[in-house]
What does this fold into?
Amino acid sequence: MSLLGNIIWLIFGGFISGVGYILGGLVLCLTIVGIPFGVQAIKMGFATFTPFGREIVTLENADSPLRIIFNIIWIVLFGWEIAISHLLHGVILAITIIGIPFAQQHFKLLTIALLPFGRDLR
It folds into this structure.
């Protein structure tokens, strides 16, 4: 089921979304200050390619002060827009029975899009 879900996900927007995350991350990496945020965006891009069969894992030092500060900056600058996008797409997909598995993936990606520092999709 994971393979089929990932293939359908890639065909109907997952590939474009992942490429968008990666390109945005590369642009953020052009400045020294933006490198940590760019790395997280690139990580989310690769996670967006194949979300089926993966789980969000909280790293052991996810609550370190630096990661909390980075998550706050991320939420203010980028995270809330990305999270709203995943929320809206998930709600729209949840209307139909066929879209429910894809809505669940958007809700999973919403969590990592809002607080990417200290979390990984494995």
